[in-house]
Amino acid sequence: MLRAELRSQLRRLWPELRIVGEAGDGVQALQLLDEQAPDVVFLDIELPRISGLEVARQFDGRCHIVFVTAYDAHAVAAFEQGAVDYILKPFDAARLALAVRRVEQRLGNAPAIVDGLLRELAARAPPAPYLRWVNATKGSEVQVITVDDVCYFQSDTGYTRIVTQDSELLIRRSLKDLQEQLDPALFWPIHRSTIVNARAIDKVSRDLRGRLHIKLKWRTEVLPVSDAHAHLFRQM
Question: Going from the N-terminus, what domains does the chain have, and what CATH number goes with each?
Answer without folding.
Answer: 2-124 (3.40.50.2300), 135-233 (2.40.50.1020)
